[in-house]
């Protein structure tokens, strides 16, 4: 069996390395010096800055030093932990051709010129988009260490970058970092972003963007723990003319609270808690979260109806529904203490019976049950019968209720005649 014989190697022989395999030394300071030198020659000429950055990308390694590039364009130099400019190397360490050197008295046109610099740069070098988005998150964590005027300039730019889709809206969630929240910096910065956006593109644009990104669900995470209250939160937005955003938050918060109320009820029913305990818990929760009675009774209906495995035969489901609902009439009665709540429940039953075909003929029996158990009053039933609150299946349900309503009307007339004879 032949063995492979290694070829002799001359002592001191140099192994030739291909150029593409040679690793270039990492030199962010050299990159910084080159960029600063070029930017300083442009002064405050934004067209000149864009032309320089466009041409420099073919000579300087933007892919490798993208973070440093954006630090320089925003803060003037390379940012180090603590948010200060690096003083390494011979310098100069900082350029005046940067966002933080813009006038302290905000000029939106100047800030939009800077916006165009970034747009043109990332349009020319697409790979910079991801680097830029990551870098903004890092820079936002440094806002504590920037001067108030620099923070304001950054908030203007962040509003412009988010609105033009250079940066995703959820990038601002990094501001909920504890060291920024406790000093009120997170909420103040976010409010500034909202204010500049509203000023530039209007409140409708801001509302749509917030809803699309679901930022309203994170808003309370920007409020310091020591002031984690609805009152403080409302004041912060109202004083800055952002009532519309506050309404978005309230709407989202209400939806979440209603889900929690539904879960609370569902758990109570599955655990077999006494009705009085469930009623007490629901009232306490609804009061705390400002959920109205007419909203609560509709949640009760949905939850109670979800507890049963309904028969698929129309002729059997009516009796099943009456038996099932009879167990919970005290629960419904506790949350129909006014006409609006009664009518809301009646309309909820109408909508449910219309949407679930097997329940189409169960409507009358359910309403009669609620009438007999003092859940829905005759005044509300007659009001519903005469007026068109919900047209879904109304004609069929009116026909079902005709004899019962006539009986109610006759009973009412007899009662009136007896009262007058007395």
From TrEMBL:
UniProt-listed GO biological process terms: regulation of translation
InterPro entries named in the record: ARM-type_fold, eIF5-mimic_regulator, HEAT_5MP1_2, W2_5MP1/2, W2_domain
SUPFAM superfamilies linked to this entry: ARM repeat (SSF48371)
Any Pfam family hit: W2
Region of interest: Disordered: 1-21
Coiled coil regions in record: none
Cellular component GO terms held in the UniProt record: cytoplasm; membrane
PROSITE patterns cross-referenced by the UniProt entry: W2 (PS51363)
W2 domain span: 251-418
Entry's family note: Belongs to the BZW family.
Record's protein name: W2 domain-containing protein
